[in-house]
């Protein structure tokens, strides 16, 4: 793995090239188990995948229109999404036992982190009531530029987010992205912004301390297996 450093004691890892989804999933789950056991540091992992459709725990069969790429069921919250070259994937293996056992707060913090990073890229992004993900306006209509789907197991987070830097947007045509047929997807490239992954990575790194400081939200944590607004599954 290349591009390793750390932020506030958390390993910040950037993997070059395309990382197969199954390899990334296995590595992430192993790291989560090690973090829970106190045998490894928390991890923020930035990577890209070859083209693939992933189905979250709320995926509906009718939202898979054209399985032109491999389709994988995964344990994160949310519905169908696409991953592929030109999209920045960020997997978060964080210990909410130490940062506040509040999944809603965690999802809200991740949304805010992406919005802040996009602002540094000159994109005005926002949350949309009742719709998961990160949104912006692409010449008028609201369009989705980032997806969030997480799982929290024994208060260790897994999975994370995907932001469209410069993917082939036609690849989203094989699914109903996140089960929302009435809204398009967009990207930094479509908005005429800088499409270098390193530039966006720097924006994420600069905004990361605010994410970490936002995670201690006092509230009653959910009990049992719970699906929460924002594409989160807690068990």
Task: Tell me, rounded to a whole number, the average pLDDT.
Answer: 90
Q: Strand count, sense and closure of the main sheet?
A: 10 strands, mixed
Number of strands: 13
Structural class: alpha+beta
Low-confidence stretches: none
The percent range for strand residues is 25-35%
Based on CA atoms alone, the radius of gyration comes out at 16 Å
What general outline do the C-alpha atoms trace? globular
Q: Give the H and E element order.
A: EEHEEEEEHHEEEEHEE
Distance between the termini: 30 Å
Helix run count: 4
Q: Can you give the helix content as a percent range? A: 10-25%
Q: How would you describe what is shown here?
A:
This protein has helices spanning 21-36, 96-99, 103-120, 197-213, and strands at 5-7, 10-18, 43-48, 52-55, 71-73, 80-83, 87-93, 126-128, 131-137, 142-153, 156-164, 226-228, 232-234. By secondary structure, it is of the alpha+beta class. Strand 2 (10-18), helix 1 and strand 3 (43-48) form a beta-alpha-beta unit. Helix 3 (103-120) crosses helix 4.
Brief summary of the model shown:
This protein is α+β, with helices and mostly antiparallel strands. Helix content is 23%, strand content 31%.
Defining key terms:
three-stranded mixed beta sheet, alpha+beta, 31% strand, ten-stranded mixed beta sheet, 235 residues, 4 helices, globular
């Amino acid at each position: 793995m290349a591009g390793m450093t750390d932020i506030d004691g958390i390993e910040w890892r950037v993997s070059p090239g395309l990382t197969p989804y199954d390899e990334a999933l296995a590595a992430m789950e192993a790291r989560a188990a090690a973090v829970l056991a106190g045998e490894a540091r928390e991890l923020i992992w930035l990577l890209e995948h070859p083209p693939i459709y992933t189905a979250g725990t709320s995926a509906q069969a009718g939202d898979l229109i054209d399985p032109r790429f491999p389709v994988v069921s995964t344990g994160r919250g949310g519905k169908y999404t696409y991953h592929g070259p030109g999209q920045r994937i960020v997997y978060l293996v964080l210990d909410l036992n130490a940062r506040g056992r509040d999944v809603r707060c965690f999802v809200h913090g991740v949304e805010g982190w992406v919005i802040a990073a996009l602002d540094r890229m000159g994109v005005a992004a926002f949350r949309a009531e009742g719709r998961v993900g990160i949104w912006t306006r692409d010449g008028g209509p609201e369009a989705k530029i980032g997806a969030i789907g997480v799982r929290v197991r024994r208060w260790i987070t897994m999975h994370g987010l995907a932001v469209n830097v410069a993917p082939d947007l036609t690849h989203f045509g094989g699914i109903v992205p996140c089960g929302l047929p009435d809204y398009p997807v967009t990207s930094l490239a479509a908005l005429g912004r800088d499409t270098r992954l390193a530039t966006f990575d720097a924006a994420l790194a600069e905004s990361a301390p605010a994410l970490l400081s936002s995670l201690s939200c006092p509230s009653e944590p959910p009990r049992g297996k719970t699906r929460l607004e924002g594409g989160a599954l807690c068990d």
